[in-house]
C-alpha cells in the first residue's frame, strides 16, 4: 500500500509540475459525516391554555437523536459544488435527487 501511494503521489507531482493551475482546477473532492437530525418543538406550539389553579403539565423527554442522516459535501478550487443529506437507506450516486 505504501509503495502504491508513493507511486500515485509521484504521478500527481509530475502532472502538477507540467500543468500547474489547470491541474488544480480539475480536482474535485468530498467529505461525508453522519449527523443527528431532529425538529425541536417551538415555544409557541408547546403553549397550553389551562386554568391558573391547574397543575403544571408533564413534559416528556425528547431525545436529540431522533434520526441520523448522512451529510455530504463536494468542492473544487472555486468552492462548494454540491451538498446534500441522505437517509440511512439511501445510496449516494448520480441518480440521487440531492445531486441533480
Care to describe what's here?
The chain is α+β, with helices and mostly antiparallel strands and 100 residues long. It has one domain. Strands 1-2-3 form a 3-stranded antiparallel β-sheet, with no helix packed on it. It is elongated and about 80 Å long. It starts with a helix and ends in a 14-residue tail after the last strand. The mean pLDDT is 79.
Please supply descriptive tags for the structure shown above.
100 residues; three-stranded antiparallel β-sheet; 3 helices; 3 strands; 27% helix; elongated
pLDDT average, as an integer?
A: 79
* N- and C-termini, Cα separation: 35 Å
Count structural domains.
Answer: 1
Helix content: 25-40%
Outline: elongated
Biggest sheet, in brief? 3 strands, antiparallel
Total strand count, please? 3
Q: Please count the helical segments.
A: 3
The strands making up the biggest β-sheet line up spatially as 1-2-3
> What percent of residues are in strands?
25-35%
Unreliable parts = none
Radius of gyration from CA coordinates? 24 Å
Structural class, from secondary structure content? Answer: alpha+beta
Question: How is the topology of this model organized?
Answer:
Layout: H1 2-19, H2 21-25, E1 29-37, H3 43-46, E2 67-76, E3 79-86
Antiparallel strand pairs: 1-2, 2-3
Organism: Elysia marginata
GO molecular function, one term: nucleic acid binding
InterPro entries: RNaseH_sf, Transposase-MT_Hybrid, Transposase_1
